[in-house]
Amino acid sequence: MPNIESAIKRVRTSEAANAKNSSQMSAMRTTVKKFEEAATAGAENMNDLYKEAVKAIDMAETKGLIHKNKANRDKARLAKKLAK
């Protein structure tokens, strides 16, 4: 544990940021997984789930959680599954 006040504050803020980032990444993965499960099952609400998944991916990209190319690659894969 750090002794310097600024280092102590940095530990607190980095823990808060880590919790927030982990939560958002988990939410993104969950929405993508829901879409993929619906795609394999052939559900009727695939368009809505696709929009939610793309929105979650874009949010993660905007926040800097994933790289721009990964976001585009993931969205392309989802679009390909939607087209099937």
The total beta strand count reads 0
Query: How much is the average pLDDT?
Result: 95
Proportion of strand residues? under 5%
Question: Regions with pLDDT < 50 over 5+ consecutive residues?
Answer: none
What form results from the Cα inertia axes? Answer: elongated
Radius of gyration: 17 Å
The end-to-end span amounts to 54 Å
SS-based structural class?
mainly alpha
- Supply the number of helical segments: 3
- Summarize the biggest pleated sheet: none
Helix residue percentage? over 70%
Order of helices and strands: HHH
Explained architecture:
There is one protein chain. Helix content is 83%, strand content 0%. It contains 3 helices and no strands. It has helices spanning 5-41, 46-62, 68-83. The longest helix is centred in the first third of the chain and has 37 residues, at 5-41. The chain is elongated, with a radius of gyration of 17 Å. The model has no long low-confidence stretch (mean pLDDT 95). This is Small ribosomal subunit protein bS20.
Question: What's a quick, concise take on this entry?
Answer:
This protein is an all-alpha fold and 84 residues long. The protein contains three helices and no strands.
Looking at this protein, list some descriptive labels.
84 residues; mainly alpha; elongated; Ribosomal_bS20_sf
